[in-house]
Write a structure and sequence with these properties.
The chain is of the alpha+beta class. The protein has nine helices and 14 strands. The strands form three sheets. The protein has a seven-stranded antiparallel sheet with strand order 2-6-7-1-5-4-3. A four-stranded mixed sheet has the order 10-9-8-11. Bound molecules: zinc ion (ZN).
């Protein structure tokens, strides 16, 4: 069963809460380091914490820390932990939906309360699956990144690739970054901003090329590819949302994300082929598709996406 990690940002925790998370992390880190050198680590149970400190600390966290330190010691990975985030097993974390909002609750130093989390549509899709039982919640980790407290929750789910009924074609291009087509519905993902940034980088490269600043060109190349990666990631996420909303089983995207199967289609002919079956280079002229035989016209990228969907349907059937 595939597993994904759902990273949920806690929604505006109070200063008091943030201080408490900070304190929990500090205690947990020093406990983990104390454990690492404990002669009886292998027999350790949650009772051992009393030997370490007299303060109150959630035994759910203690148990997870002991388990993790044991395995890290065994694989001789750790010498000293810089930060040891508090972890909880699946039974100790509860996801709930209250009205429009999703909340998570986990053991802390205070009374247990549901904390609202910031969610995007694709995260809501996963939280809904946890709530309706079509995905299973695993262990969770409370951590801080860029001054924001988050809960990373492991989610495992069943993949049933043979039950897919719908197919989505995705045509990846420059003018439109992607065009998706499901049945009669289609969606254009605009690449305007993308093209603009790429043109700007290309112009900068030309200028630097004239000035023979090769190391700068290389540096820019890396920056651009990082930016493209991020952009593609965002677009793919939107495509997956579109796919999920339309009950699609197959699209070209990260397969592990939603158990969606990926098939790549030779793009050479998809944009030149008409639904009547006639293929000719002249059928496509920029963004316009016009069949030279039957006169059928359509947006060229959309025609490509439809043909891709058809081609993939052929694989599935
Ligand atoms: Zn035609």
């Amino acid at each position: 069963m595939p597993t994904i990690t759902l990273k949920l940002e806690l929604h505006n925790p109070t200063k008091v809460k943030q201080d408490m998370y900070e304190r929990m992390t500090e205690v947990n880190t020093s406990f983990a380091n104390w454990l690492l050198n404990h002669p009886k680590l292998n027999q350790a149970t949650s009772k051992l914490f009393k030997e370490f400190s007299s303060q109150r600390f959630p035994s759910a966290v203690v148990n997870q820390t002991i388990r993790e330190v044991k395995s890290q010691k065994k694989s001789q990975k750790a010498k000293k932990f810089r930060t040891f985030w508090c972890c909880f097993n699946n039974q100790n974390v509860k996801v709930e939906k209250k009205g429009e909002f999703y909340t998570v609750s986990f053991p802390t130093l205070e009374k247990r309360v549901g904390v609202p989390v910031v969610t995007r549509p694709y995260q809501e899709a996963w939280l809904n699956r946890l709530l309706n039982g079509t995905a299973k919640q695993g262990a969770a980790k409370l951590y801080k990144k860029r001054k924001k407290w988050c809960l990373a929750v492991a989610v495992t789910f069943e993949v049933e690739p043979r039950h897919e009924t719908k197919v989505m074609g995705v045509d990846l291009g420059l003018r439109y970054l992607a065009v998706a087509s499901v049945g009669t519905k289609s969606w254009f993902f605009k690449g305007n901003q993308c093209a603009f940034v790429r043109r700007r980088y290309a112009a900068l490269r030309r200028r630097l090329g004239k000035a023979k600043k090769l190391h700068m060109i290389r540096k820019i190349g890396r920056k651009e590819s990082r930016w493209m990666k991020e952009m593609n990631h965002n677009i793919s996420r939107q495509i997956v949302n579109f796919a999920l909303a339309n009950g699609v089983g197959v699209i070209a995207y990260k397969a592990e994300m939603a158990g969606i199967r990926v098939e790549w289609v030779d793009p050479t002919y998809t944009s030149q082929t008409c639904k009547c079956g006639y293929r000719e280079k002249a059928n496509r002229n920029g963004i316009h598709f016009r069949c030279q035989r039957c006169g059928y016209t359509l947006h060229a990228d959309l025609n490509g996406a439809i043909n891709i969907a058809k081609a993939i349907s052929g694989f599935v059937a």
